[in-house]
Amino acid sequence: MSAIANNAVRKIRDDFPILSKPMNGHRLAFLDSAASAQKPQVVIDAERECYESYYANIHRGVYALSQRSTQAYEAVRGVVKRFINAADEREIVFVRGATEAINLVAQSFVRPTLGPGDEVLITGMEHHANIVPWQMITEATGAKLVVVPVNDDGTLDVDAYRERLNSRTRFVSFVHVSNTLGTVNPAEEMIALAKERSIPVMLDGAQSAPHMPVDIQALGADFYCFSGHKTYGPSGVGVLWGRLELLEAMPPYQGGGDMIRTVSFEKTEYAEPPQRFEAGTPNIAGVIGMGAGLEYLENVGMAEVAAHEQTLLSYATAQLEALPELSIVGTAPHKTGVISFVMENAHPHDIGTILDMDGVAVRTGHHCTQPLMERFGVPATARASFGVYTEQEDIDALVSSLKRVRKMFA
User: Fold this and answer.
1) Before 274, cis peptide (omega within 30)?
2) Mean predicted lDDT score pLDDT of the chain
3) CB atoms within 10 A of CB 264
């Protein structure tokens, strides 16, 4: 696995029009890819071409525009299948994002199985999108939400995870990579432990799909999801992958057009997956743009993306650790390109504001992980996160600006 060469990263950066625009008079150092990645020209072109050249509503249309739109839309299932190594295109459901995917599984697959005393198991490093849906269905059914604790270094307590798997556990859902800590969880081991008890598992891949190779068949999960906007595609689209036999047994999440086989006032027969879970007119151009984003990543090479971000992570960690009065939150040995940190005497929002004046864009706040913030005893952090276009120069700009923050708040 080799990292992307420096000259190749500069060329990649040129593929993203927004990165050539100055920010507050400075070269833009965009370090917020964990929240949403910027878009390469090929994604912008793919959406524009759809709207300019062949847009029409998909499925059932017999005229040429509808046929072409349908073909372009459905072709993305093949792109996703290849990208995550799924077994069948019918396992690929298009949704609005990872949040909708988790809600779909919670309501359609898990909720009907729950009763009083049953348990759903998650971890202490989950995004709110992988907490709230499970709270909603456990509160409604009398089941219990069980949480696996996080260690001081930001790793998951796998022994505690093992102990919490029991005869009452009906479902496990956990994040593949923490959006706040960057921690890469031992997904294969955790899934295997659940499978020993025949417990189905959902893996939240919002932060793994953009940053590392994903082989969903090797991982062994039952469901996997990710968002288009983090994989360099448009917002408002995403993917739910599920084992075909499970999707075939699940009732629809929503009712409406395009998810039916036949409708009468007496009875409705539902379509087969994946159409069963895609009610209404979808974000057609958005799905096509998402496919372009995934193909862009494939052309770069996911192994190369992962190696590149690891190189940046090592460099940035060393630079930030050398800054007095700065503490990194989350020091797991296996991380992706995410660094959350706090500074003495400076609130994260102030840090973010001053960095922005220097053209450095970072995320500040609780990152939709309020329970995790409470676990580490901080109200918020500043977070720098990397993407395929991130250069060492971006890290240097971050460090230089943080030195200015330190002087201002000393």
Assistant:
1) yes
2) 97
3) 7
Rounded distance between C-alpha atoms, residue 309 and residue 1, angstroms: 12
- pLDDT tens-digit map of 80-128: 999 999 999 999 999 999 999 999 999 999 999 999 999 999 999 999 9
101-116 as b/e: b if 16+ CB within 10 A: bbbbbbbbbbbeebee
User: Apex CA 329: angle with CA 84 and CA 189, to 5°?
Assistant: 40
Give dist(CA 326, CA 346) in Å, integer. 10
Segment 270-325, tens digit of pLDDT:
999 999 999 999 999 999 999 999 999 999 999 999 999 999 999 999 999 999 99
Q: Please state which CATH class domain 6-36+301-409 belongs to.
A: alpha beta
Is residue 296 classed as helix, strand or coil in its secondary structure?
A: helix
Candidate list 44, 260, 368, 378, residue with the active-site label: 368
Q: Who's near 97: CB < 8 A, 6+ residues apart?
A: 227, 228, 229, 235, 236, 237, 238
Is residue 23 within 8 Å of residue 31, measured between CB atoms? Answer: no
Provide the CATH number for the domain formed by 44-299 in this structure.
Answer: 3.40.640.10
Instruction: Give the domain ranges of the chain.
Output: 6-36+301-409, 44-299
50 belongs to the catalytic site: no
CA distances to 1, 127, 223, 281 from 102, rounded to whole Å, are 32, 11, 9, 20
Return the bridge partners of 338, or none: 385
Nearest to 154 by CA among 365, 390, 361, 381: 381
Predicted TM-score (pTM) of this structure: 0.97
